[in-house]
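Lab notebook, bench 4. Still working through the backlog of constructs that have no structural model yet. Next entry is a single chain of 329 residues. Request: give me the structure tokens for it.
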Amino acid sequence: EQKRVLDNFQERLGAMQEYREPLESVWLDGCRDYYSYKTGRIATDSEFSLSNLFIPKTFELVETTVPRYFTALFAARPIIKVLPRETLGDIELAEDNEAVLDWQIWRVKMVKQKFLRVIKSASVFGGAFVKLPWNAAEYYTDIVPLDIFDVWVDPIAQTFDECRSVIQRCIVSKEWLKRHGAEYYDPEVLNKLLGEKDDTAEKIASETSRTERAAVLGTKLSSKSYSNCVVFYEDWNEDGILTTIGGRDKDLVLRQLPNPYWHGQPPYAYVSFTPGLFGIYGFGLPQICHDLQEEYNTKRNQRIDNVNLSINQECLVNPDMHINFDALS
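Model written out:
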């Protein structure tokens, strides 16, 4: 039974990764454009180099749009409007739900910073994933912005609510697992995991999505960055939750249980910046204005190159004319 469950998980994850793979290069291009990341232009000779400016047009568009979205979101209370069901006329119940939701939202720590990160991520990548776990101790729903490269969704779903499965890749430290892992996962499997050497997390450092984004920031990832971490996958599907270790023996299942939420849905949300005509993934500002960014860069660099060529004109000299170069200086 466990083998069947894990085989189904591997099949789902493989289909999701294959579906999303073409989008990852688009997201990385958008990240480079937002950070005005320059790629080198080949110099013609040792004395004259081509201009290599990056005009921050994409950055300007994102940083102009995001504050407007953010201001509009927090301009009035409550933030979330709950509509009553027309058939039942539950107006008072809808108003009560609005008040409860508004109260819960403002209990979330650093709620404005989290919303700002979600909106900015959506504007750059076209969408952003958010996890909404229930905090039983303090009685509210938390808001956790996620890395879009660490979440995969059902490839045939047209809306997020139609997803048959949502898979999140989690990277946690072994120290955290030692302290809290027994509260959530199978102790026997957990002890086996912590007692073995695992280089799965270290391999994450070589992924293109992480190395490219690190280069954009002027940083560099190495295997040492994840040397004391563990990678596992949480699969929220129609059967419940499956937590398994990636890149290891298939018998390492940390957790398998029914969905604990009464609504039966995974505790995730997807915020789309500009929804497409089909599919879940939207598109962001860098994808829309990528060619415009290329035009800005090309024209500005060509103008500077033209000025440099005009100022530093080269002459052809006939050696048979016996020109006195000292006299010219």
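Notes after review: The radius of gyration is 27 Å. DSSP finds eleven helices and ten strands in the chain. Flag for follow-up if needed.
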